[in-house]
Amino acid sequence: MMRLVFLDLRDHAATWVGAFCVAVACGFIGGFAASLMATAKSYPNMESLAVTMLMFSAMAAMAVLASAANLTVAMQRRSYALWQLANVSPRRVAAVVLAQLAVVAVLGAVVGTLVEAASFVPLFPLVFSSPFYQPIDQVVLDAGLPFMPLVWLSVAGVFLVGGLKGARGAGRTSPMTVLRATDQPRKGMTWLRVVLFAGLVFGTWQLASSLFGKDLDALGNSLFLPLLMAAALVSVAPAVFSALLSAWTSLVSQNRWNAWYIARHIARHGLSVSTSVETPIMVGFGLVAGIFSLSSLLETVIQQYGLTLNATLDFTTSVLLLGGPILLCAVGAAVSVVMSSRTRTRDVALLIASGARPETLVAAAGFEALIHAATATLAGMAVAAASNAVVAAAVEFPLFSGLAFGEGLVVSIAGFVLVLAATLVPTLSALRKQPALVLAVEE
Fold it and tell me: What are the TM regions of this chain, as residue ranges (predicted)?
């Protein structure tokens, strides 16, 4: 079985490289938190900073890793179907898929932690350059190498949990069904997503309730509201994003631009790709806009009541809270499109054979990136606005006081650029190939 695991990884390296890059990013962020934990021996405040950083990065990591794992499995479903036709049992197929996920996760996490360990010393003074943390010359830096195996296991664990459903589906799906369609539509919500959504909604409600009628000092916990709300939205992302995408794109005429028509239908049909691309951008926008909005609101509250508290986000705090999620979201959004490049090549060939012009397909790639970014941004806006409204109501301020989307739009624009590049490159590459040859190639 292990021979099949490694040979298939070698033959489909282009598909697995995306998941590997996500694992590298997770390993780097987890390694940085581990280094802060180890450095806490000489600087006690580091431990709480490391825990806070992990809490904010963990949610983004789980969303991005699970999306990358499921998308990778979805892109490989044809291979798994061929295995079953070659008399490989469904249970063995699922075991091989899980083993591949574990191997890629561990290798990526190892590379990420090694890069972090080598760069921790020069990065530390840059990250902690805010005046509040000065001086740091006396801090004894420790890369925390003994903690790194825990990071590897954590990344592998999230990969396995995130790809479990896809691995089981790879073994249970009829081979003939898979060979007829590359991406089957999903129907309804799984019970696991429903339970997870209910639990996160309950946790959000408990946190929101605790803010009402309390001392203003307790409002510091409000920064976790965008985190919980974004996590709740991630659990129902396939259904919500699909409905949201269909709703707002229907406002644009489908008969005026052929490129828009093609882009909209590709985005709606490729549910696995769409969800994997939009989820990271939504999480990044929701966290950044939500936290900066709450910081602005709390600053207004502090000034009005004449308190001595400080709710302004300095550079170091911003990097520790949002640096990890933004990095993960950027990598996750880009690699999700890159991993589907083979499918895009075939789609472009089919469209050219159907009479589509090259300039129309290039424009469609741009519109598709715009659709993904806009859908994720709208969902992220809902997260930021909802969290801000709860806190504003708790302090008896007008709803949406201090609401700011500017910082979050930076994430959306960056995500759009990355997705645009990842969409255009395979499209332009496919346009240089003969459609008949592409359609004749069998895996």
Answer: 12-37, 49-73, 94-127, 147-167, 188-208, 228-252, 273-298, 318-339, 360-387, 399-425
Q: Are residues 170 and 198 in the same domain?
A: no
CA diameter of the chain: 74
- Angle (nearest 5°) at CA 185 between 438 and 172: 90
One domain for residues 153 and 193: no
Q: Do residues 266 and 403 both lie within one domain?
A: yes
Question: Are 1 and 99 spatial neighbours (Cβ–Cβ below 8 Å)?
Answer: yes
| 221-278 residue pLDDT tens | 788 899 899 989 988 888 899 899 989 998 887 777 888 988 888 888 766 667 777 8
Helices within 148-190 (DSSP H only): 148-172, 175-180
If asked whether residues 95 and 118 sit together in one domain, one would say yes
Backbone angles phi, psi at 294, to 5 degrees: -65, -40
CB atoms within 10 A of CB 377: 25
The pLDDT tens digits of the residues spanning 308-343 come to 666 667 788 788 888 888 888 778 777 776 676 666
By the 8 A CB rule, do 419 and 284 touch?
no
30 close to 155: Cβ distance less than 8 angstroms = yes
Q: Are residues 230 and 376 in the same domain?
A: yes
Q: Do 100 and 229 fall within a single domain?
A: no
Is there a contact between 148 and 52 (Cβ–Cβ < 8 Å)?
no
Examine the domain organization and report whether 152 and 219 are in the same domain: no
Q: Angle at Cα 409 formed by Cα 404 and Cα 415, nearest 5°?
A: 155
Query: Cα–Cα distance between 128 and 317 in angstroms, integer?
Result: 9
* Alpha carbon distance 325, 150 (integer Å): 20
